[in-house]
Amino acid sequence: MKIRYKIFFCLLLSLFTLSCNKWVDVKPTDRLGEDQLFVDPAGYTKAINGVYVEMANTALYGQEMTTGAVDVLAQYYVLTSSTHRYFDHTTFVYTSGKVKPTFDNAWKKAYELIANCNVIIEKCGDAPSQKLPEPYYGIIKGEAIALRAFLHHAPSFWSYLQRGE
């Protein structure tokens, strides 16, 4: 009787461990791959729009590089409490555990977006194509190049501050 239970258990276990190719190949519904995105001008526009949306992240222009750390470094605010989140920013202690992540996150997010711009520029190619005809080619590629240049330059003031210039 024990042998039957063992055989039944092994058969049952083998049924659960079998997989179907359809189940394994699950594609996320909220993400598009390069092969799906860069097939027409609308896809290129979505890619550029994604860069603009991510620029609103709090590490960049959603907070820190507009009304957060930048305003504190410009001394628009007088912070007297040493427990305030930006107190070390006002005292220019850039190696502090509160200040360093601000700079690191700004650079990290900026370089993620620069990489996205590089992919868009690469997919645009050197000349208009069937996927990206002339009216759209110049606009999309131009915006991607401009965004890349902007993101390269924008966080550079952090490095000048760290060097004391």
Concise account of the structure shown:
Residues 1-22 form the signal peptide. By secondary structure, the protein is mostly helical.
Content of β-strand: under 5%
Q: What does the radius of gyration come to?
A: 25 Å
Structural class, judged by helices and strands?
mainly alpha
Count of discrete alpha- or pi-helical segments spanning 4 or more residues? 9
What's the number of extended β-strand segments? 0
- Please bin the fraction of helical residues: 55-70%
Average pLDDT confidence is 85
SSE string: HHHHHHHHH
Give the count of structural domains. Answer: 1
Distance between the termini: 84 Å
Q: Provide the low-confidence segments as ranges.
A: none
Q: Name the shape in a single word.
A: flat
Sheet having the most strands: none
3D structure, described in words:
With 165 residues, the chain is mainly alpha-helical. The protein has one domain. Helix content is 61%, strand content 0%. The protein has nine helices and no strands. α4 packs antiparallel against α7 and α7 (100-124) packs antiparallel against α8. The protein is flat, with a radius of gyration of 25 Å. The termini are far apart.
